[in-house]
Amino acid sequence: MRESYVEELEDIRSCLVEMANTVGSQMSTATTALLDADVALADLVIAGDEQIDATRESIDQRCFTLLARQQPVATDLRSIVTATRIASDLERMGDLAEHIAKVARMRFPDHAVPQEVRPAFLEAGHVAEMLVAKAGTVIATRNVEAARELETDDDAMDRLHRGLFRQLLSDDWPYGVETAIDITLLGRYYERFGDHAVGVARRVVYLVTGERHVPEVSQP
Amino acid sequence: MRESYVEELEDIRSCLVEMANTVGSQMSTATTALLDADVALADLVIAGDEQIDATRESIDQRCFTLLARQQPVATDLRSIVTATRIASDLERMGDLAEHIAKVARMRFPDHAVPQEVRPAFLEAGHVAEMLVAKAGTVIATRNVEAARELETDDDAMDRLHRGLFRQLLSDDWPYGVETAIDITLLGRYYERFGDHAVGVARRVVYLVTGERHVPEVSQP
Question: What is the ipTM of this complex?
C-alpha cells in the first residue's frame, strides 16, 4: 500500500509538470493569436482549455482519493494539499491564456494590439512562457532557490505592465478608448498569469521549508 | 470522536458564513470609499483584508487537520474539501474589495469614478453585497434553489458591466484614457467578485446534489 501511495504521489506530480507544459504552450499560442490576429490559433486555445480543466479535475480527484484512503500526516498531507492548490493555479493560468485568445477572436479580422504596443506584448508573452516553464521545473525538482528566483523573474512582468500603462497614458495615444480597454485587460491577464506562476513557486517553498510568504496571490 | 468531528465541521461552516459577512462588509465599505473618495475608509478596507486572509488560513488548517485525523469518506470528505474551496473564493472576493479600495486611495483626493458612471458603480456595489449575502445564506442553509438563483442574480452584474463598456465607448466619453483604464479595472473587479459568489453557490450545489456545473469560475 505504502509503495503504491508514494508512486501515486509521484505520478500526480508528473501530471502537474505536464499541466504546466500545456499551459505554457497555450499561452504561447494565445500570444501568437493575439499578435498575428490569427483566429484559427485563437480557437485552438479556446478549445484546448477544456483539457486543462479536465486535468485539474482529475488531479483533484486523485488527491482526494489519496486523502480518503490513506491517513497522510505532516509532509505527505502537505504534498497532497499543495498539489491541489498548484492544479488550481495552473487551471487559472489556462483560463487567462483563453481570455487572451478571446480578445484576439473578438477583434478579428482587426488586430487587438496596435503596432506600438506589439513589442510589449511579445515580451510579456516570452516572460509568461519563461515563468510557467520555471514553475514546471520547480514542481518537478522542488528546487527552493529556483522557486525564489521566480519572484524576481516576475518583476519583469510588472515592469512591462507599468510600461504599458505609460504608453496608454502618453499624450499621443492615438487609438482611442476601445483599444485602451483591450490593452488594459490584456495587460492584466498577463500580469495575473505571472502572479499565479509566483503562487506555484511559493507553494513549493512552503512545502519544502514550511515558510509561508503570503497567504495568497493577491497583488492588485 | 465522531461527535466532536461533526461539531468541528459545523463550526467551520459557521466560520465560512461569518467570513462571507465580513467580505460583504468590506465590499460595502470599498464601494463607499470609491464613490466618496474617502481615503480613511479605503485604508480600513486595505487593513481589514489581513483578517480575511487569516480566517482563510485558519479554516484551511482546521480542514486539513480534520482530513488528517479522521478518514472521512463520501459526503464528509466532500464537505471538507468544499469548505477549503469556498474559503478560497471568499478570500479572493476580499482581495477584490481591497483592489477597489486601492483604486480609491490611488486617485485621492480626486474621485476615481466620474459623475456619469457613479450610478453604475453604486448599483454594482449593491449587487455585489446582495450576491455575497446570498452566498452566505447558501453556505449556511445548503439551499440548492437559492444557490441556483445566484446564477441568475449575477446576470445583473454582467449587464451592469456591459453597460459600463457602452458608456466608455460612447462618442462623448470626456474623461480620457486614464479614467477609462480605472473604470475598466474596477468593472472587472466587481464582475469577478460576482463570479466568485456564483462559484461558492456552485460548490454548494455540487456538495448537495453531486451535479457539477462547470469545473471552475472562468468567465473572461
Answer: 0.86
